[in-house]
Design a protein that fits this description.
Distance between the termini: 18 Å
Shape: globular
Low-confidence stretches: 1-14, 214-224
Structural class: mainly alpha
Helix content: over 70%
Number of helices: 20
Oligomer: single chain
């Protein structure tokens, strides 16, 4: 084994951006803009909805609609992305995102807010919803070789996490400017609209090199877009759904609301907390590629995720705010190491012409399952001291970790063939 397997790849430190294609750079920028907007939106969304008169049940409905809508829009848009053009679909998604932001800024009607949440990729979690990640995830491997695939996914996620951290920190800006809470929330919503419009312009600049040939006439491929890897994708979808359902109990907006209910934490402090979580997650991405080279992609996914979920279970047992925040931050030092490794692993074990469809199906499985959980959080948050969302999330995520290792420990990506003896 290479003695330098723990070293950071040279690309992280010298000339990485200069070696990226123009399309890769544009994808990095769109990821940054979107993540920045999701960062501030997720922290203040629950507080904003409460400020305009929605109760906890109604807030849960809007969150569920947003996550379910993200799944539905992913199905609709990724299904036609290769036929009508990935760039066009991304641009259409940006328009819907902007329109949803306008609705949230202008009305307090629950029905309109729910419709906008369904159609407009509103993110209560601080993470990706809708078709953007799936299509960009399919595009990224086309911008580099297999030897740098994990590196580019790690860099992509690093950019997104850092931007999300800055977005979470920006949630306190209206307060610093002396604005009333509701006016400040609305200003941030308009910032979300502006971010969507910026994404539209950036997507318009992508080149035709990221498009793929039309789907062949085989009826099963026309319907699903996945052929050889259908069994693996189905199993992964089921497992990712368990993980995402668990994650739905601890989406960033709900955790922010829990800290507010349990400890009375104000908006500026919440912004600082979630700046910390996003910053630590971003730093962890730097370790993903070297850990994966030493341990393998699947092992890196599982054996960094398990301890993070144990830390998540401990958050509600902490006796004061400082220790609860400390445990939550410690959890985020490990919780995102599996993201670039998971993305690289799934793109590696499917054929190139299956990547868009596989990424879309897996994203739908994750987003759809995550959409269910917030509907239960109204009664879970009735007694904040119990910390039930953390307990449900941590326990289910541990089941996911054990299951994916048991089912996929023999499935190696091509670049790892022969490096470890199969059990």
């Amino acid at each position: 084994m290479n003695n330098n397997s723990w070293a950071f790849p040279e690309a992280w430190w010298t000339g990485f951006l200069s070696r990226l294609s123009r399309d890769a750079r544009l994808l990095f920028v769109t990821c940054a803009v979107r993540s920045f907007a999701y960062g501030f939106l997720s922290v203040m969304l629950g507080l904003f909805l409460a400020a305009i008169g929605l109760d906890a049940v109604a807030i849960g409905i809007v969150f569920t609609a947003a996550l379910a809508g993200g799944a539905a829009m992913t199905v609709l848009l990724t299904t036609v992305a290769d036929q009508y053009g990935r760039r066009r679909v991304l641009m259409a998604g940006a328009v819907l995102m902007a329109l949803a932001g306008v609705v949230f800024a202008l009305t307090d009607n629950l029905i309109l807010l729910t419709i906008a949440a369904v159609l407009g990729t509103i993110s209560p979690s601080g993470k990706e919803v809708g078709p953007f990640l799936s299509i960009e995830q399919a595009m990224l491997p086309q911008t580099t070789g297999s030897d740098r695939r994990t590196n580019i996914f790690a860099a992509y996620n690093l950019v997104g996490s850092l931007a999300g951290a800055l977005g979470a920190l920006a949630v306190g800006l209206p307060s610093v400017l002396g604005m009333a809470p509701l006016a400040g929330y609305r200003l941030l919503i308009w910032g979300y609209v502006f971010a969507a419009l910026a994404m539209f312009v950036l997507f318009a600049g992508l080149s035709p090199a990221l498009e793929v040939a039309a789907v062949k006439s085989d009826s099963s491929r026309q319907r699903y877009g996945v052929h050889r890897s259908r069994g693996a994708v189905t199993r992964l979808a089921a497992l990712f759904a368990i993980d995402a359902f668990a994650g739905g109990f601890v989406v960033q907006s709900l955790v922010a609301y829990w800290f507010y209910l349990r400890y009375g934490v104000n908006t500026k402090a919440l912004g600082a907390i979630f700046f910390g979580t996003n910053f630590l997650a971003a730093i962890s991405f730097l370790l993903a590629a070297p850990i994966a080279r030493r341990m393998g992609l699947l092992n890196a996914m599982v054996f960094t995720h398990l301890p993070s979920n144990l830390l998540l279970l401990l958050v509600p047992f902490m006796p004061n705010l400082e220790l609860a925040v400390g445990m939550f931050l410690a959890r985020h030092m490990l919780s995102q190491l599996d993201v670039p490794t998971r993305q690289s692993y799934t793109m590696a074990i499917v054929d190139p012409d299956e990547r868009s469809a596989a990424a879309g199906l897996l994203s739908v499985a994750r987003t759809g399952a995550a959409a269910i959980a917030p509907a239960f959080t109204g009664w879970m948050l009735a007694v904040p001291a119990l910390g039930l969302p953390f307990l449900f999330a941590g326990g289910l995520k541990i089941i996911y970790d054990i299951s994916i290792f048991a089912l996929f420990r023999h499935v190696r990506p091509p670049e790892e063939a022969g490096r470890w003896t199969k059990e």
